[in-house]
């Protein structure tokens, strides 16, 4: 038992020694690196594509063009960067950037839009049912 405790202590000290200091500067740098590996423009372009699939075919291109034209990517990117720096540590942001910059991460991201489009109707339907049941339970009889 004593050997296990010593091993755990050594492991904790070892990993702490190589952790990136969690400073605002490191958070900002790692958030920028993450946003380079996963550009918000690509995310929103993919989102516009998926949303447009709900429209009649002859309206899709015009919808995507207007949405792209009217969407302030710089404001969204700044909001994303600010929220990342606020909520994630420098090491967490580095891990996200490493993963999403990797071949597996890029592959996963390329499938995320299709996954979301497929699962969203089920999520919406289940949320609607849950809200309906909640309202019924909260209503006086």
Describe the protein's architecture and organization.
With 141 residues, this protein is mainly alpha-helical. It has one domain. It contains seven helices and no strands. The protein has helices spanning 2-17, 24-37, 40-52, 57-70, 73-87, 90-101, 103-138. Helix 2 (24-37) packs across helix 5 (73-87). It is extended. The model has no long low-confidence stretch (mean pLDDT 87).
What's the mean pLDDT score?
Answer: 87
Radius of gyration (CA) equals 22 Å
Please state the overall shape, judged from the principal axes of the Cα atoms: extended
Taking the sheet with the most strands, its summary is: none
Poorly predicted runs of 5 or more residues: none
How many helical stretches?
7
Q: End-to-end span in angstroms?
A: 60 Å
Number of strands: 0
Q: Please trace the helix and strand order, writing H or E for each element.
A: HHHHHHH
């Amino acid at each position: 038992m004593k050997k296990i405790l010593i091993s755990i202590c050594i492991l904790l000290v070892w990993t702490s020694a190589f952790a990136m200091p969690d400073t605002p500067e490191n958070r900002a740098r790692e958030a920028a690196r993450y946003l380079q590996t996963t550009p918000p423009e690509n995310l929103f372009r993919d989102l516009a594509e998926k949303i447009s699939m709900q429209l009649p075919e002859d309206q899709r291109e015009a919808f995507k063009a207007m949405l792209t034209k009217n969407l302030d990517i710089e404001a969204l990117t700044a909001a994303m960067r600010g929220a990342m720096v606020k909520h994630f540590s420098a090491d967490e942001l580095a891990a996200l950037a490493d993963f999403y910059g990797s071949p597996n991460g890029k592959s996963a991201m390329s499938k995320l839009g299709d996954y979301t489009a497929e699962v969203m109707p089920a999520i919406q339907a289940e949320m609607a049912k849950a809200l309906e049941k909640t309202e019924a339970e909260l209503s006086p009889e």
